[in-house]
Amino acid sequence: MDYPPTTTLVGEVFLPCDEQASGQARRILSATLDVWGLGHLFETASTVLAELVSNAVRHAGGRQIGLTLWRRLTLVHISVRDCSRALPCLIMTGPFPTTAESGRGLQLVAALTFRWGTELLPGGKRVWAEIAV
């Protein structure tokens, strides 16, 4: 099967693994979506990205995380790489309360995306999500 070429504006961007990473990642996402003419996806994509980044910062530790954004004709792909090899686990226990402050991040990612997943890497893992254009 032939796929259309992907569009990547920049390679992997490295962000410090701290509380400022989510805001930095969202600014990169906003600029990238604008260039692609997909600014209307920002709210959904930024929610997904914020969950992936905050999970990496909260659970993985390390000094930095990697952010990659690319686009295929019908999908925007967001991935966050960290130094932990512990894979996240989506626990479905029924509807999640909208007032919960934590514990629902991957449920939210699953609900907002076309698909999501993880990859083990030699020095950690990558958690990715794809949003339909």
Automatic annotation (TrEMBL):
Domain Histidine kinase/HSP90-like ATPase stretches: 22-116
Keyword ATP-binding included in the entry's annotation: yes
Domain of life: Bacteria
The entry's keywords: ATP-binding, Kinase, Nucleotide-binding, Serine/threonine-protein kinase, Transferase
SUPFAM superfamilies according to UniProt: ATPase domain of HSP90 chaperone/DNA topoisomerase II/histidine kinase
Pfam families per UniProt: HATPase_c_2
One MF annotation (Gene Ontology) recorded for this entry: protein serine/threonine kinase activity
Name by which UniProt lists this protein: ATP-binding protein
Biological source species: Actinacidiphila oryziradicis
Lineage per the UniProt record: Bacteria, Bacillati, Actinomycetota, Actinomycetes, Kitasatosporales
